[in-house]
């Protein structure tokens, strides 16, 4: 018996084919982005003009639509952001996914009924950060992918806010919203949807000046892909509201395959069946896209399982290793099915180089031509264009494509007629001399009523019976519906022309379809809200005094800085050392503040935040949203400030943070000088502290490269 509602299955869509693939294969909801302000700027995405029709399509099919609006937004973009948020609300989207808390506030003011989902870019990793997201207006938070199921359970039990969890797709090596690697190395900000995937490049591991690791282990920060079907029962058990598939840059075939897989698994688990999925289905999943599968962090931290370091590329299904190459054929002992037409690649341990691969022309088993071979020793023949001289015994062989499988998944969404249809019930009543009245109801309780254009007549020969009514009214092919039950409440022996029943059926379908298409209508502010929100921000532009503060990461640095006076922020690796350091440095002349970590996991608040409070600092530099929530409740009156990792890029975000009682805000590192200047002109100078010298903190990795 389920203790919580059945979780939603949420699928990605980078274009309309992907969206159809998600709908036809069982998604409860689909998320997608628009041309701007989407964390997947490289996806095809949708235009504002396409948005109303897209939402109506989803709603008619009984599927919810969430718009990803999940990048940081600069001050000079707020007018455009308001226009786009209005378009999203006007179209009837079920929710908007946001990273920027200023944008969350803007959305709430534009449309109080439009749900806000806190993006994984908001770095929600604890009960405290979940409450922070709720206070920002979110009705759901998409948790960081670096949490275990046990940690998710603690967070879920702490607050009535819905939580959403990724169960499949690519993993980042750093916490989303806290990665500046792409920005630092190539000027492309992940917080702006332009991640260049620097984590997929080769690196050396250098410890104390020495290079460690083998020649083949170069992709040290390229994780395996997430495939969490093994932990689905536990996620359902703890009450996760939504299970999310990553992949707005993937193909429709991927969306179809992965959506159908998780639809089947969720339905099985909720029906009490915890059996592992068939191996052939997992292979199909691997073939859609796989760098190798793992449970990610959901089953706990396993560094060696999460990052193999051998390749950043899609690999698919491992077939085996090359035994020999002769007579234009490649011999291997295959561990998985292989057939003519399949695509393979030969992995020689150097994915940075051009790799040999192509489509199989012929398969030989025991010296004879074969069709599909399930397993065993085979010889593979290829077209002459494939240079087999480059291959060596021991090369790994991966099956990367299966045209038959691709065709199977394409057929699930191609064509105009819906393949996934919603069950409806029809209730009939009427008597001679009156029109036949029918009521059609869907599973959500929406009802449409229609009547025949002509009255019922007394039956002379064959009265309307259940079979005739079901035949005529059940002809719902080409619609989004299928007849489940029909209740006949006709009085006496009556009849009507079949053409009248056909007209009645079409009327019912149109009316119920219209109800579903327009099922979400949001309240909208009549006038633009941005001028009012900006006008409420204090206009004190006078710079009374410019202060210089410093941050020390070691006791030696702190001892050198303290006699200079002013604010000194400590960022030690061990927070226990703060208890002794604060009074000593204060006595030396400094105002001593303490920095929190950028990430706070469940349970860490006692050791980390508790030690900071016990140290009695002059203030706290909050580097994660949970810290603000915790210190406001557990240490009221202690001065707080927000560091760059709270991702403030516009005046609405600065105002929202300052309204929490903060002393100042450090702007996001995504702001260049022009954007920083725009923010500074829009808020009082005393609100901002700008970093003028430091090494760029490129990422917060949750893994250890030494395996410790």
Give the secondary structure arrangement, pairings included.
Elements (H helix, E strand, L loop, with lengths): L7 E5 L3 H9 L4 E5 L17 H10 L3 E6 L8 H14 L3 E4 L2 H10 L4 E4 L8 H9 L4 E3 L6 H10 L3 E8 L11 H6 L18 E3 L2 E3 L12 E3 L4 H6 L4 E4 L6 H19 L8 H10 L4 E2 L8 H4 L10 E10 L2 E6 L8 E5 L8 E10 L2 E3 L5 E7 L13 E6 L1 H8 L11 E9 L4 E8 L4 E9 L1 E2 L7 H8 L7 E10 L3 E2 L2 H20 L12 H6 L14 E3 L2 H7 L5 E4 L7 H10 L3 E5 L8 H11 L4 E4 L2 H10 L5 E3 L8 H8 L14 H10 L26
Parallel strand pairs: 1-2, 1-11, 2-3, 3-4, 4-5, 5-6, 6-7, 7-11, 10-12, 20-24, 26-27, 27-28, 28-29, 29-30
Antiparallel strand pairs: 7-10, 8-9, 13-14, 13-19, 14-18, 15-16, 15-19, 16-17, 16-18, 20-21, 21-22, 23-25
């Amino acid at each position: 018996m389920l203790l919580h509602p059945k979780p939603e299955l949420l699928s990605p869509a980078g274009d309309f084919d992907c969206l159809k693939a998600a709908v036809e294969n069982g998604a409860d909801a689909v998320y997608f982005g628009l041309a701007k302000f989407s964390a997947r700027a490289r996806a095809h995405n949708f235009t504002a003009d396409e948005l109303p029709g897209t939402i109506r399509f989803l709603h008619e099919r009984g599927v919810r639509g969430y718009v990803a609006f999940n990048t940081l937004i600069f001050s000079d973009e707020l007018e455009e952001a308001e226009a786009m948020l209005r378009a999203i609300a006007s179209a009837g989207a079920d929710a908007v996914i946001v990273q920027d808390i200023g944008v969350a506030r803007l959305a709430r003011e534009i449309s109080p009924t439009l749900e806000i989902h806190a993006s994984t870019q908001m770095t929600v990793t604890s009960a405290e950060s979940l409450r922070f997201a709720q206070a920002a207006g979110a009705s759901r938070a998409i948790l960081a992918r670096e949490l275990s199921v046990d940690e998710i359970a603690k967070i879920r039990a702490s607050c009535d806010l819905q939580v959403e969890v990724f169960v499949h797709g690519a993993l980042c090596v750093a916490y989303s919203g806290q990665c500046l690697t792409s920005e630092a190395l190539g000027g492309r900000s992940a917080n702006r949807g332009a991640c260049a995937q620097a984590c997929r490049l080769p690196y050396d591991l250098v410890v104390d000046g020495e290079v460690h690791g083998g020649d083949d282990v170069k992709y040290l920060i390229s994780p395996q892909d997430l495939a969490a079907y093994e932990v689905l029962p536990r996620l359902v058990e703890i009450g996760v509201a939504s299970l999310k598939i990553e992949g707005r840059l993937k193909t429709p075939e991927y969306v179809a395959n992965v959506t159908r897989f998780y639809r089947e698994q969720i339905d099985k688990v909720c029906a009490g069946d915890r059996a592992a999925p068939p191996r052939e289905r997992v292979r199909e999943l691997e073939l859609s896209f796989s760098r190798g599968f793992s449970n990610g962090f959901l089953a706990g931290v396993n560094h060696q399982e999460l990052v193999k370091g051998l390749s950043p590329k899609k690999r698919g299904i491992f077939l085996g290793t090359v035994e020999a190459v002769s007579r234009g054929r490649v011999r291997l002992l295959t561990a998985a099915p292989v057939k003519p037409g399949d695509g393979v690649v030969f992995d020689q341990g150097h994915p940075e180089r051009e790799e040999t691969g192509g489509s199989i022309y012929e398969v030989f088993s025991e010296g004879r031509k074969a069709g599909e071979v399930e397993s065993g020793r085979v010889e593979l023949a290829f077209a002459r264009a494939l240079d087999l001289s480059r291959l060596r015994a021991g090369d790994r062989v991966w099956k990367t494509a299966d045209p038959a499988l691709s065709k199977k998944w394409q057929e699930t969404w191609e064509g105009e007629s819906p393949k996934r249809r919603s069950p409806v019930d029809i209730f009939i009543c009427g008597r001679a001399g009156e029109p036949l009245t029918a009521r059609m109801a869907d599973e959500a309780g929406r009802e449409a009523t229609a009547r025949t254009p002509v009255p019922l007549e007394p039956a002379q020969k064959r009265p309307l019976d259940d079979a005739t009514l079901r035949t005529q009214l059940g002809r719902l092919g080409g619609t989004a519906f299928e007849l489940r039950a029909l209740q006949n409440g006709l009085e006496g022996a009556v009849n009507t022309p079949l053409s009248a029943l056909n007209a009645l059926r079409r009327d019912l379908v149109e009316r119920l379809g219209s109800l579903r298409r327009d099922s979400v209508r949001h309240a909208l502010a009549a006038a633009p809200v941005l001028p009012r929100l900006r006008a409420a921000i204090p206009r004190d532009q006078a710079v009374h005094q410019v202060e210089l503060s410093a941050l020390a990461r070691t006791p030696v640095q702190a001892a050198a800085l303290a006699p200079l006076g002013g604010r000194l922020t400590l960022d030690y690796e061990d927070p226990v050392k703060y208890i002794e350091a604060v009074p000593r440095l204060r006595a030396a002349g400094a105002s001593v503040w303490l920095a929190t970590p950028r990430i706070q996991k469940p349970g860490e608040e006692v050791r980390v935040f508790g030690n900071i409070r016990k140290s009695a600092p002059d203030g706290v530099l909050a580097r994660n949203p949970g810290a603000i929530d915790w210190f406001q409740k557990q240490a009221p009156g202690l001065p707080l400030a927000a560091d760059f990792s709270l991702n403030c890029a516009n005046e609405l975000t600065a105002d929202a943070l300052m309204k929490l009682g903060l002393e100042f805000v450090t702007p996001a590192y995504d702001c260049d000088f022009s954007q920083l200047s725009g923010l500074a002109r829009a808020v009082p100078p005393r609100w901002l502290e700008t970093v003028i010298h430091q090494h760029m903190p490129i990422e917060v990795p949750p893994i250890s490269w030494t395996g410790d």
